[in-house]
Design brief:
It contains 3 helices and 5 strands. By secondary structure, it is of the alpha+beta class. It has one domain: Dynein light chain 2a, cytoplasmic (Beta-Lactamase, 2-Layer Sandwich).
């Protein structure tokens, strides 16, 4: 959350999409109800599991991006059995379009997940 002002929230789930941890930026109102969020995360986790079948041919998945009018959601594998979802506001609703952005968030999360302190 501290890496970019435009991150709205982050959620860690297991590979089935069950929420394990969540963090919301203060003052942010969710667009989806808790039930809609849970359903969306389960669908995204199912999609990620489906991609795993391709990994032997194309390599391990690094991240996926789903862009909507109001938010952009990035999904990253967190080990073999968990996922982290990072949501940022789309340009029209972001707090400050001059602060960070999708590429910076992706790079930062990948650096954190690599556990390589020289990349952080």
């Amino acid at each position: 959350m501290d890496s970019d002002i435009n991150i709205r929230h982050s959620i860690i789930t297991d590979i089935e999409g069950n929420i394990l941890a969540t963090n919301h930026r203060e003052g942010i109102t969710n667009f989806l109800s808790p039930e809609e969020t849970a359903s969306s995360l389960k669908r995204a986790a199912d999609t990620w599991k489906g991609r795993r079948q391709l990994f032997p041919k194309i390599g391990n998945g690094l991240y996926a991006v789903a862009a909507f009018e109001k938010i952009t959601r990035m999904t990253f594998p967190l080990g073999d059995n968990n996922l982290i979802f990072v949501s940022m506001g789309s340009d029209s609703v972001r707090t400050d379009v001059h602060q960070g952005g999708q590429k910076q968030i992706v790079d930062n999360v990948l650096n954190i997940l690599s556990k390589d302190p020289t990349k952080a």
